[in-house]
Amino acid sequence: MNNISPIEKSPLQSWDNTDLFSNDLPSKFRPQIGKILVTGASGYVGGRLVPELLARGYKVRVMVRAVSPEYGTLWPNAEIVAADALDTGRLRAAFEGIDTAYYLIHSLRLGPREFESADLQAAGNFRRAAEEAGIKRIIYLGGLGDVRSSLSSHLRSRAEVANELRRGKIPVTILRAAIIVGSGSASYEIIQHLARGLFIFLVPPWAKNRCQPIAIRDVIKYLVGTLETEETTGQSFDIGGRDILTYELMLKTLGELLQKKQIFIAVPFSNIRFYAYITSLITPVPASITECLMEGLKNEVICQDESIKNLIPFQPLSYKEATLRAMSREEQDRVHTRWSDAYPPAHALALKLNELKGGSAYTAYCSLITEKDAPSLFNSICKIGGKEGWFYSNWLWRLRGTIDRILLGVGSVRGRRSYSSLKISDVIDFWRIEDIQYNKKLLLRTEMKLPGKAWLEFNIAEEDGKRRLNLIAYYDTHSLSGKIYWYMCLPFHHFIFYNLIKEIEKRS
Ligand SMILES: NC(=O)c1ccc[n+]([C@@H]2O[C@H](COP(=O)([O-])OP(=O)(O)OC[C@H]3O[C@@H](n4cnc5c(N)ncnc54)[C@H](OP(=O)(O)O)[C@@H]3O)[C@@H](O)[C@H]2O)c1
Q1: Which residue in 478, 475, 508, 506 sits closest to 490, CA to CA?
Q2: 350-507: CATH homologous superfamily?
C-alpha cells in the first residue's frame, strides 16, 4: 500500500528549487521594482510565473477571477485579489499600489465564436485601469505571426490585444511566442496524444507550415528577464526555441522519442474544423480549443527578430530537449499547471453544492462498512480517474465520456494533472474537485453535458469502531428531460456506485 496520502503531497510542497526556471538567468533581482500584478495566474503560463517571481523576492499580487482556498498554499506570501477584467470596478481595485503588471489573460477557452471580442474588451479595461492607477509598465505575452499576412482569428486577436494595450500611455513590453512546449500545455498534449495513439497520419497542406516552438522554461525566463532588463521597456520581441520545424516534423520527432513507427499520407483536404473535431476525440483537449490552435497552424510562426538574445542572453532549448523535459516531468508526476486548470472557463463561477437553495432535488446513496482505516480508504478514493480509470465498469464511464465528447463536451479523457496529488479545482476526467477534506470527504462536480447539475460525494464516517464508506450522487434539475435522464440512469447508478465503493475498499 502507498502510505502517501494524495493530498499530503500538494503541488506547492513538491515545488522545489529544481522546479524554478529562472535560477540561471543573466539578469538579477531589482529591489526598486514595487508590487507586481500577475493576471491570468490560474492559467498555464501565469501559474508557473508566480512562484518564480516570489522565489526571486518580488512582492506579488495575483489576480484571479474566483479565489480558491488552495491559492494561499500554492502562493504563500502573495496577495490574492479576485477581479474579472470584464468588470472595470473590481479591476481598478486590483491595480492599487502596483508598479508593473503582467497581462496573461486569454479567453481562448470560450471557443472560436466568443474569444475575440472578450479578449479585446478585457485588454481595453485593463489598459484604462492601468492608466488610472499610473503603473510604470505592462508586460504582455502574445502570439507570433506576421501581421502583414492573413492571420488566423486566434493570432489576429493576440495582435489586436497587443495594439489595444499599446494605445495608452503606459509602456508595454510585448513578447510574441509560437507553440509553448511543456508538460501540461494544450498544444504539447495534443501532439503527444496523437503521436502515442496513431501510426497513420493524414497530412493536410497546412501541416507543412513552419513553426518555432519554445519551451515553457524559456518563456518564463524571458518573462522574468524582461522585468529585470530595463531596456526592454516599451519594446516588442519575438521569442522562440532553437528549432524551426513543420508540424509534421514535430510529430516525427515525438515518434522517434517514443520509438513508434509512423506513416504520413499527404491529403489535399484541409478543413480545420473537421481535423479539430477528430483530434479532440483522440486527445484530452476539447474541440473548441483544438480548433483555435489548429487555425493558427495556417500561418508560419517564426521569429522575425532575435534582438531579445542580446538583452537577455541564454541558450533556449531545442524542440527535442523541451519535449524530453516535458515527458520526464509527466513521468515524475511533477506537472504544476495544466491547460485544464482553466477549462471550461465558467468552472470557477459554477454553482457549488452548498449554494443550492433547498439542497439537490435528487440523491442516490450507497455505503458499506469496513474495518480498513480512513487514510487507506481515502488514499484509494483519491486514485480514481485518469490512467487508473473508475475501478469498476470502466467501459461504461468511458462510453459516457465518449458520448460527452461527441456532443462537444469535456469528455472523460481530460484525465488528471497529477496521479499522486489532488487539490480543489483539479480535474478528474469529466469531474472537477469542489471540496476535499483529508481522510473524510471528496466532493466532485460534473462538467459533462447533462440536463441538470450533478455532484458525486465520497465520504468516510466512524461507526462502532469501524468505518462507513458512503457514496452519494446529488442531482438537480428543473426540466422534464432532466428528470427523464435521472430516472433512466437510476438503475445503473446503484449497480455502478456500489461496485465502485466495493472496489475502493478492496484496493485500500
Ligand atoms: N499556452 C501556449 O501555448 C501559448 C503560446 C503562445 C502564447 N501564449 C500566450 O500566453 C498568454 C497566457 O496563455 P495561457 O496558455 O497561460 O492561457 P490560459 O491557460 O488559457 O489562461 C488564461 C488565463 O486568463 C484568465 N482569464 C480569462 N478571462 C479573464 C477575465 N475576463 N478576467 C480575468 N482573467 C481572465 C483565466 O482565468 P480563469 O481561470 O478565471 O478562467 C486564466 O487564468 C496568452 O496571451 C497566450 O496568447 C500562450
Answers
A1: 475
A2: START domain (3.30.530.20)
